[in-house]
Amino acid sequence: MRGKVTAGQMGLMRGAQTMPAPRKYPLELRERAVRMYRTAEPKPVIRRMAEELGVHHEALRNWIWQAEADERDDLLTTEEKNELAQLRREVRDLRRANEVLRTASAFFAAQLDPTRSR
């Protein structure tokens, strides 16, 4: 059945439609944990503070790092990271669409002019 496009092929042409994973920790908890870390003197051990809050220590470490990055000019902010990820997805989808169009163009050119070498 040549010429029919399946739903799976249409999905490939449009790109994957995925939803982001739900957040494991609420945003309020993240903000409170970062605020607690910043206001504490002397600075607490992240692993111990994470245990007290009931979060993974690497999650807390990443929250603190990202909060600091959001305030600095030389690191990507959360908004910039999200925009960069969105732009990369868009570029990937456009490249995939170009490849499909290039293949279709070659196919139809061969159909229109069968004497042309492939």
From TrEMBL:
It comes from the Bacteria. It holds the Pfam family HTH_Tnp_1. Transmembrane segments: none annotated. Keywords: Coiled coil. Residues 77-104 form a coiled coil. Gene3D superfamilies: Winged helix-like DNA-binding domain superfamily/Winged helix DNA-binding domain (1.10.10.10). The keyword Coiled coil applies. This is Transposase.
